[in-house]
């Protein structure tokens, strides 16, 4: 049984740097000096700041992957054009999911506050009172003041 690596700041920086360079997390986890993929996912689940750093590194890594795919597309020839097209398609899909600028949907966040005020503050305008008033009017009952 191998010793489980502790994910400290130095290791987190190394993981994030590699992710930003476009290296997939699964490939990183196979390296000897890296923790296992299961260990990394446990840390992601338990540590919110680690999760945020990994997500940001993945977004940047997706941008790197897009740029690499564009470079390959520019240098493609007849023998490898189909493989390059698939890579570009994957890069486009990744970008649409990880980078909001490239997404299919644009989210608009609004903060709407509705305030309702009654013009006569001393009159009872509760829902129960409205029901009583409607029933009383149906039967011809009037309130004495």
Explain the overall architecture.
With 145 residues, the protein is mostly helical. The protein is built from 6 helices and no strands. The longest helix is centred in the middle third of the chain and has 27 residues, at 48-74. The radius of gyration is 30 Å and the shape is elongated. The model has no long low-confidence stretch (mean pLDDT 80).
Number of strands: 0
Give the overall form.
elongated
What's the overall average pLDDT, rounded?
80
The topology string of helices and strands comes to HHHHHH
Low-confidence stretches: none
What percentage of residues falls in helices of 4 or more residues? 55-70%
Supply the key terms:
145 residues; mainly alpha; 58% helix; elongated
Short description:
The chain is mainly α and 145 residues long.
Compile the SSE list and pairings.
Layout: H1 9-20, H2 25-29, H3 37-46, H4 48-74, H5 81-98, H6 127-138
